[in-house]
Specification:
By secondary structure, the protein is of the alpha+beta class. It contains nine helices and 17 strands. Helices cover 32% and strands 25% of the residues. The protein starts with a helix and ends with a strand. The structure holds adenosine monophosphate (AMP) and magnesium ion (MG).
């Protein structure tokens, strides 16, 4: 994601949900709000650049400071495991060696991702990395790959060829040259982990914003719901609507987040594993709302690939697990019934019922 866009997105969420858009890194503060007890109103906020994006965590309450610090530690720990670009990461080593005995986190993510690959009929596939490389998304040396190259990469994109022993946690690749990419799920897992850690710290109110992907814990300190702006795909400084939620992850995928242009065509980073090309599903933005951040992240990517009709069919089968906001390239907005009371927008929208 371009820096400009990251800052824009960060500010947008900031305006609506945290206390402004600080640009300095690693700020620490503790505040006492007027008219309320000191103990109840401790706030600790920290920022960090990790996983290719700006992140801000805000915890409230007695243990806010240590909770915010623990959140930053967790981000750094998971970044070091899952970052594909870093030569020391676990994923980098797995890809280089064609497998490994996985750490607990990576094993968990691999299991969730392969299960979601099955459930989404292959729309979400963590073996997408060779295709990401072919398009230059991994190096920013962008190009439209030759058909032959894509054909080879497509043969390597197949999660059913991951050989994983659930007991020993040993992973190997069924086809030589396969590579993993947790980019479509890592941030959601990270926010979920932070929320779990905060609960262990006794935190009951907090918000994690990982480059516009948000997960909230409890309610705001005044007892009201968090207000999360959903960014417009066309204009990073405006939003398509505002969602009022508590205890939920709100995770958005859109082609606008990372793309390049060649010969007048735009190529974005969400790949259809069927074709090897950026998904042209008719959707420009997909937001998933769920109490499970890991699920929300994987599904935001998967439903973008599926397109509106398939995505809504999928939602009907799993409506107890998540809700969704879909925007088409014709600027139509669809919102599933579970969040219809929580979402306000100036745009006309269609509520989808089961
Ligand atoms: P997100 O922003 O969550 O939609 O994730 C996009 C990232 O997920 C891309 O930058 C790739 O690293 C990865 N990715 C792209 N296409 C897919 C796919 N079909 N399944 C799983 N991961 C994908
Ligand atoms: Mg995702």
């Amino acid at each position: 994601m371009e820096l400009r866009k990251i800052v824009g997105l960060f500010c947008l969420i900031g305006i609506l949900s945290v206390n402004g858009c600080g640009k300095s890194m690693d700020i620490e503060r503790q505040q006492e709000n007027a008219g309320m007890s000191l103990k109840k109103h401790m706030e600790a906020q920290k920022e960090i650049f990790a996983m290719d994006t700006y992140m801000v965590v805000t915890a409230y309450g007695e243990n806010a400071q240590s909770a915010a610090e623990a959140a930053i530690d967790e981000i750094q720990r998971l970044d070091a495991l899952l970052s594909i670009g870093s030569e020391e990461s676990e994923v980098w080593n797995i890809n280089k060696n064609g497998g490994d005995v996985l750490s607990e986190d990576t094993a968990y993510l691999l299991e969730r991702a392969t299960e979601l690959c099955k459930e989404t009929d292959g729309a979400f596939d963590i073996t997408i990395y060779p295709i990401m490389e072919a398009w230059g998304f991994t190096t920013q040396d962008y190009q439209v790959p030759a058909e032959e190259t894509l054909k080879t990469c497509l043969s390597l994109t197949d999660s059913t060829q991951l050989i994983f022993d659930e007991v020993t946690k040993e992973l190997s690749f069924g086809i030589e040259g396969m590579k993993l990419d947790f980019g479509g799920i890592a941030k959601g897992y990270t926010s979920s982990r932070i929320i779990d850690i905060w609960k262990e710290h006794g935190i009951t109110s907090g918000m994690v914003n990982l480059g516009g992907n948000v997960q909230t814990l409890g309610y705001k300190m005044d007892g009201s719901e968090w207000k999360i702006g959903i960014q417009s795909p066309e204009d990073e400084s405006t939003y398509i609507g505002v969602l009022k939620i508590h205890d939920k992850a709100v995770i958005t995928s859109g082609g606008y987040e990372r793309y390049f242009e060649q010969d007048g065509a735009m190529y974005h980073h969400i790949i259809d594993p069927e074709t090897g090309y950026p998904a042209e599903s008719g959707l420009v933005s997909v937001t998933i709302v769920s109490s499970d951040g890991t699920l929300a992240d994987a599904l935001s990517t998967a439903l973008f690939v599926m397109g509106k009709d398939r995505a809504l069919e999928f939602w009907k089968l799993h409506s107890d697990e998540f809700d969704a906001i879909l925007m088409t390239k014709e600027n139509e907005l669809y919102i599933t019934e579970g969040i219809k009371e929580n979402f306000t927008s100036d745009m006309s929208l269609e509520v989808v019922n089961k």
